[in-house]
Amino acid sequence: LADCYAALVHWPVFNKNRSVIASALTTIDLHDLARAARTYGLAGFYVLTPLADQKRLAVDMIAHWQSGPGSQYNTTRSDAVSLVRLADDLVDLRRILTEQYGLSPLVVGTSAQNGAGRIGYQDMAGRLAGDRPVVVALGTSWGLADDAEKQCDLMLAPIEGPTEYNHLSVRSAAAVIFDRLFGRTKRGAL
Amino acid sequence: LADCYAALVHWPVFNKNRSVIASALTTIDLHDLARAARTYGLAGFYVLTPLADQKRLAVDMIAHWQSGPGSQYNTTRSDAVSLVRLADDLVDLRRILTEQYGLSPLVVGTSAQNGAGRIGYQDMAGRLAGDRPVVVALGTSWGLADDAEKQCDLMLAPIEGPTEYNHLSVRSAAAVIFDRLFGRTKRGAL
């Protein structure tokens, strides 16, 4: 299986008025996604923001769970948070992983919207073999802006339940996406 | 398909020392689970706490998204939060639904721990037909205490990824459980 990474994109993303923004980090996204990434065997979890103050905030959050009060309070969370890394954006992340692996990663974008050429979960799960690292890019706020989507080699189909409502939190969406892609590697079919 | 409900149990649950407690409500659990319940077509989402001050807090949170500032800020969240109901605990919820349907609900508990007789997701999905309402009970904090588990007619198998780490947040676990149980009703196999 390829080394797979989650990337939580804070820039460039849409706000609710479809303006392009850098969204704020939230501590709950950070540890919920870290725990899900750890559960599903991901190689790392990149938090993407180019803003220096937001990076400092991320470093503080990580330190809280790794060596601060949180490390005493909850050791399983410290284990998960050890997966967290920082980078500016998907361009920066592609550069980092290309350097590390000698291969440009396959970057898979996610969206609550449908569109042309979206890849299904079973197809995508079938493409996780090989040496090329895989990045699953998750947009915060109202989702990946066009410049972030342009960095994606593939776009996953939106998560659909039996209703037309498609407003999962990024925390819920990430967990479902990881489960669909990585949840059956040990168990075969559910 | 049966009417299915999510129940977020705040009492009785374990804390990290396995003492039985009533845990505190969090606003993020409330709207993350409401959005997931709405996405997956659930009939309602019960927040279970016997504490009067916590019920008042829940009512305030609901009002914020339904008629307060949040209703202007985010209409899709107000739509989801309309599913939220309050009850004391699983005993109270069973009484409410029995009165409403004339049938005692099938209460399905969830746990990060394995145990005897856990039902798998495919088997459980096959039992969602008929008139008897179904409740999926999710424990906050360190999970359902024994008295809560005793109220469950069945226990679902824990969510397992390809690793031994099993510390998903209740927000992530709920989304994955709903996806596994209700995510394929429209689409057939993934």
Question: What do these coordinates show?
Answer:
The structure is a homodimer. Helix content of chain A is about 40%, strand content about 15%. By secondary structure, chain A is α/β, with parallel strands linked by helices. A 6-stranded parallel β-sheet of chain A has the order 5-4-1-7-6-8. Chain A has a two-stranded antiparallel sheet with strand order 2-3. In chain A, helix 1 (about 25-40) crosses helix 4 (about 75-80) and helix 1 (about 25-40) runs parallel beside helix 8 (about 170-180). Chain A is globular. Chain A starts with a strand and ends in an 8-residue tail after the last helix. Mean pLDDT of chain A is about 95; it is low at about 185-190. The interface between A and B is large, with 45 and 45 residues.
Uncertain residue ranges of chain A: 186-190
Tell me the helix content of chain A: 25-40%
Give Rg of chain A in angstroms.
16 Å
What oligomeric arrangement do these chains adopt? homodimer
Question: Which pair has the most extensive contact?
Answer: A-B, 45 and 45 residues
Q: Total helix count of chain A?
A: 8
Mean pLDDT of chain A: 93
| Structure summary, number of beta strands of chain A | 8
Largest sheet of chain A: 6 strands, parallel
Strand order, largest beta sheet of chain A: 5-4-1-7-6-8
The secondary-structure class of chain A comes to: alpha/beta
What string, H for helix and E for strand, traces the elements of chain A in order?
EEEHEHHHEHEHEHEH
Measured between the Cα atoms of the first and last residue of chain A, the distance is: 19 Å
Strand content of chain A: 15-25%
